[in-house]
Amino acid sequence: MLARATAATPWGIEALPVEIEVDVRFGLPQMQIVGLPDTAVRESRERVRAAVKNCGFDLPARAVVINLAPADLRKAGNHLDLAIALALLAAHEKIDGEHLAGRILCGELGLDGGIRPIRGGLAIADLGRRMESSEILLPAENAAEGAALDAVPVIAVASLPEAVEHLTARTVIEPARARPAEVLREPAAPDLSEVRGQETAKRALEVAAAGGHNLLFVGPPGSGKTMLARRLPGLLPPLSLAESVAVTKIHSLAGSRPPSGLIRTRPFRSPHTDTSTPGLVGGGSVPRPGEASLAHAGVLFLDELPEFRRDALEALRQPLEEGFVTVVRAQASLRFPARFSLLAAMNPCPCGHLGDERHECRCTPNMIQRYRARISGPLLDRIDLHVEVPAVRLDELKGPPGEATEAVAARVLAARERQLARFGKGAPLPVNAALSPTELERHCRLEEEAGKLLDRAFERLGLSARAMTRVLKVARTLADLAGKESIATAQIAEAIQYRALDRPVGG
Predict the structure, then answer these.
(1) Contacts of 142 (CB under 8 A, 6+ apart)
(2) Does residue 68 sit in helix, strand or coil?
(3) What is the rounded distance in angstroms from the CA atom of residue 126 to the CA atom of residue 470?
(4) How far apart are CA 283 and CA 267, in angstroms?
(5) CATH class of residue range 2-167
(6) Residue 506 is inside which H or E element, if any?
(7) What does pTM read for this prediction?
């Protein structure tokens, strides 16, 4: 007797369909799984056998062959247990195989028949939408996530008998529904008004958020670099639906399932300096997204930047340039989205006290140069803003609260809307940080005095051509924040101030 069922397996941040064929015949009692399964899938035969028995289904001893099609696609993870078990029951004529047609069935089985959560519930729901499935059966813990797409009915099942009861219409389960975003109590984001002093750094945060620029803070320990960094997500515009779906898919694949179904807030990721290259950009024997992808549409904060491994930092060059990470394996090449705002922080020197009036720096110029050389030129070229963050004075700590996040975020949103109108909705990344050389010439029109100032800065400060391009992009953002079409002297002067590492040590 032959029975078929459809499941899904993760592929990057998406899911691909897997057709499960179960053939039962007379012969030596054994169960074989073919079709390029990984270890977790091969072990499913023992889980399925125990679950079916412990749920009271009496199956005769037969030779069973389970084929996972397509045969050239590596099947990974615990997603196929439920579909294998139901196809096995259909092949033994315990249920009608017609009940499995047109449905996607995913879930890990416990030995008692309970259905445990899996990764990538939203990606499976999106697959069901593309395949025009009539229904998707998912573990109860994944149901809200899958239902958030609101495309295909998602049925939450807690056990194998419950799935059988629903499929045979003896006990019909109503489709799951995602919780409305309005009723969720999101944790309050840290407010910019809590930061005392550091007006230049706060202004740089606003500029970075408005133009999509990468930002590097350089300052002594305790100057508030981390405190400032954690306020950047609150300045960014709200996630669009497409961004929310992409972010949720990534985090679901990494094993995080938000109770609301969709992630509504921009991610903030702050990996440790010991993070490996696969941990930072993704990889592993079964490729999983790294911190760069988990920060997609949000902020990747690298504190103590020079302390990160050189190879890990160099691996960030692709996502910073292209907005995605490519993980190549023998079986295939997978792509993970990774378009984030990079916010980094570092000390000005090895001891951290260069320029600090309250502490003496004992580092020599050579020591400082070697310390800063840990960050490669190509990586530094991809950071538009280098901002010095000095130690906070006592009078600043006792001063009144600064401007609130809400007010700054409103200016950022207005600047983003000007950029969207300029580039058009079809632009891949409608922010000033992504300006091409042609767009720079078209959109960065300098007033006469502003052009002269930029020329003098190029000569006196020894700016490179790349640095000059960065200055123009930042100046364009400053003009957008000011609501101006042309770039004035004030915007060029301010943009030049955000190139701290272009100046020589002690300069």
Answers:
(1) 117, 118, 121, 124, 156, 257
(2) strand
(3) 39
(4) 20
(5) alpha beta
(6) none
(7) 0.89
For the chain, give the longest Cα–Cα distance.
Answer: 90
Question: If DSSP states are collapsed to H, E and C, what string results for 92-115?
Answer: CCCCCHHHHCCEEECCEECCCCEE
Q: Two tokens at 43?
A: 């072990």
User: Could you tell me if 69 and 103 are in contact, meaning their C-beta atoms sit under 8 angstroms apart?
Assistant: no
CA distance 230 to 187: 13
Which residues in 66-87 are b (16+ Cβ under 10 Å) and which e?
A: bbbbeeebbbbbbbbbbbbbbb
Bridge partners of residue 385, in order along the sequence: 215
The domain segmentation of the chain, as residue ranges, is 2-167, 192-404, 435-507
Q: Which among 230, 160, 161 has a CA at the least distance from the CA of 201? A: 230
* Average pLDDT, integer, range 156-163: 97
Q: How far apart are CA 33 and CA 29, in angstroms?
A: 14
Closest listed residue to residue 370, CA positions, set 344, 349, 345, 386? 349
Q: Which fold has domain 435-507?
A: Helicase, Ruva Protein; domain 3 (1.10.8)
Strands 299-302 and 268-269, bridge-based pairing: parallel
Bridging pattern class, strands 14-25 and 103-105:
unpaired
Q: Are 270 and 233 in contact (CB under 8 A)?
A: no
Q: Are 358 and 219 in contact (CB under 8 A)?
A: no
Q: What is the pLDDT of residues 354-397, one digit of tens each?
A: 888 888 899 999 999 999 999 988 888 889 999 999 988 888 88
Predicted confidence (pLDDT) per residue in 53-67, tens digit: 999 998 888 899 999
Indicate the Cα dihedral angle 435, 438, 440, 442, nearest 10°: -120
Beta pairing, strands 215-218 & 385-388: parallel
Residues 6+ apart with CB under 8 A from 299: 229, 232, 233, 236, 266, 267, 268, 269, 340, 341, 343
- Looking from the CA of 218 toward its CB, the CA atoms found within 13 Å total 23
Look-up: residue for tokens 């977790």?
Answer: 40
Answer CATH for 192-404 from 3.40.1080.10, 3.30.420.10, 3.40.50.300, 3.40.50.2300: 3.40.50.300
- pLDDT for the residue numbered 257: 62
Kindly indicate the confidence band of residue 182, based on its pLDDT and cuts at 50, 70 and 90. Answer: very low
Residues 35, 18: Cα–Cα separation, whole Å: 10
Residue of 62, 94, 78, 64 lying closest to 18 (CA atoms)? 78
